[in-house]
From TrEMBL:
Record's subcellular location: Mitochondrion outer membrane
Identification of the protein by name: Serine/threonine-protein phosphatase PGAM5, mitochondrial
Signal sequence, start to end: none
Reactions it catalyzes: O-phospho-L-seryl-[protein] + H2O = L-seryl-[protein] + phosphate; O-phospho-L-threonyl-[protein] + H2O = L-threonyl-[protein] + phosphate
Keyword Hydrolase: yes
Organism: Bucco capensis
Length: 226
């Protein structure tokens, strides 16, 4: 779903028309629309919760989600969908944001759950998960990247605007992969709660980062990173 040539079975190329046939078939596989991906980090949540269901948003976190929802609505864009992590804090953030975007369908997925995508370089002393966690979470988060971050389908006629509500580790890893930066550098970035990261994927496959962790729409006393 990234390179048009990869979507064609070259063994079936018509030997008589040759390159003309190939060019015609390539034309049907090339993307025409631009995808706008808005990656939202969940709002502040209760860090004392032992299980995921107990890690609900704090009162401040709910305020942050309201501010993020209002900001997204103020952009005046026709959002196509909201895809969110199935974890409680992401689901609750989505529910609040969606009130500001009536009619936009919501889809929950386990692929976007928080985790350890890849061992960071340089390493940090305050966060050292077991090595097995990188293998378990890394494969899933990479699958999320491959599944969601790609150029538009050739059948898509108009530009699309999609929201993904998930987690800091997931967003940082996706940004590195999308920009073709070494993914091991994901932990060098920091994202505030409720922040907006905006990726643009052009029909030719080129990716641009228009915003990273934007919370300029929040009052300073509402900004957190926990």
């Amino acid at each position: 779903r990234r390179e048009p040539l990869a979507l064609i079975n070259l063994k079936k190329k018509n030997e008589e028309t040759g390159e003309e046939e190939l060019a015609s078939r390539l034309g049907h596989c090339k993307a025409k629309a631009t995808r706008h991906i808005f990656l939202i980090r969940h709002s502040q949540y209760n860090l004392d919760g032992r299980a995921d269901k107990d890690r609900t948003l704090t009162p401040l976190g709910r305020e942050q989600a309201e501010l993020t929802g209002h900001r997204l609505a103020s952009l005046g864009l026709k959002f196509d969908q909201i895809i969110h992590s199935s974890m409680t804090r992401a689901t609750e953030t989505t529910e609040i944001i969606s009130k500001h975007l009536p009619g936009v369908k919501k889809i929950s997925t386990d692929l976007l759950r928080e985790g350890a995508p890849i061992e960071p370089d340089p390493p940090v002393s305050h966060w050292k998960p077991e090595a097995v966690q990188y293998y378990e979470d890394g494969a899933r988060i990479e699958a999320a990247f491959r599944n969601f971050i790609h150029r538009a389908d050739a059948k898509q006629e108009e530009d699309s605007y999609e929201i993904f509500v998930c987690h800091a580790n997931v967003i940082r890893y996706i940004v590195c992969r999308a920009l073709q930066f070494p993914p091991e550098g994901w932990l060098r970035m920091s994202l505030n709660n409720g922040s907006i990261t905006h990726l643009v994927i052009r029909p030719n496959g080129r990716v641009a980062l228009r915003a990273l962790g934007d919370t300029g729409f929040m009052p300073p006393d509402k900004i957190t990173r926990t």
